[in-house]
Design goal:
About 95% of the residues lie in helices and about 0% in strands.
């Protein structure tokens, strides 16, 4: 009976550690995706501003900054 209890405790500990590791990886991935979305949003805003500057001024230099 004592041997089985030790095995169960070890099994639960291993399962708990695996669960914590998976949760940490999942959280890191979520942060990475959020950062990429923020970068995409910022780039989209800059493209829109460059396009609007071209519309207002007619200066093609604004489009060159947009296309890089």
């Amino acid at each position: 009976m004592d041997q089985r209890f030790k095995f169960d405790a070890r099994l639960r500990l291993a399962f708990g550690i695996a669960t914590i590791m998976i949760a940490a990886l999942w959280m890191a991935h979520t942060h990475e995706v959020a950062d990429r979305l923020e970068d995409t949003r910022t780039d989209s805003l800059l493209i829109e501003l460059n396009t609007q500057n071209f519309r207002l001024t007619g200066n093609a230099g604004h489009l060159a900054a947009r296309d890089t």
